[in-house]
Amino acid sequence: MLAHGHVPEIFALAMVLISGVLSVALAYFLAPGADVERTLWFSADGWSQISHTFVNVSISVVGFGILGMIMGLLLRSPITSISIGVLWMLIIETLLGAVKSSTLNWLPGNQLNVIAMGGTPQVSYTHGMTLAAIYIGVGAVIASILFSRRDVAN
Q: Are 96 and 107 in contact (CB under 8 A)?
């Protein structure tokens, strides 16, 4: 039987799978109109690329979810957690990257995006995985300490 605590992760991974299947299907049927060759898509190399992309996007989605849970534990308010998380990931990181592109090598949201893409010319996959693991690990330790010291009723 499935534990109740794992439902959000399974839902997120199911959404990644469904969106991936739909994206590949749509791309397959739209490719001829854009003069894109499809013969290698479902070869052994093609399936390898599709499965690697699925794994990378799944890791990224779970990482974003864990960061969201950490924010929720730290701030103890869903609205505040979502607002600050969206503000940071979509606006602040983008502005910092536009002002000084090298900052994107160190920001948490960009590391999870790098993982989803399997690495970029600017940031390696290994760098993204390592830094994301450090961010998540430090956040989890801080959230655990705060959670253990807080009044549960509050």
A: yes
Residue entry with tokens 């961010």: 135
Q: Token pair for residue 131? A: 């830094």
Identify which has the larger pLDDT, 144 or 124: 124
Compute the CA torsion angle 84, 87, 88, 90 (nearest 10 deg). 150
Three-state SS at 42 = coil
Sequence-ordered alpha helix ranges (H) in 34-107: 44-75, 78-86, 93-99
Write out the two tokens for 87: 């503000």
Cβ partners under 8 Å of residue 9, min gap 6: 62, 65
Inter-CA distances, 126 with 56, 60, 94, 97, Å: 12, 13, 22, 20
Q: What is the CA radius of gyration of the chain?
A: 19
One-letter amino acid at 57 equals: V
The model scores a pTM over 0.85: no
> Each residue of 19-75: pLDDT tens digit?
999 999 999 999 999 999 888 999 999 999 999 999 999 999 999 988 988 898 888
Record the tokens describing residue 15, joined without a space. Answer: 């959404």
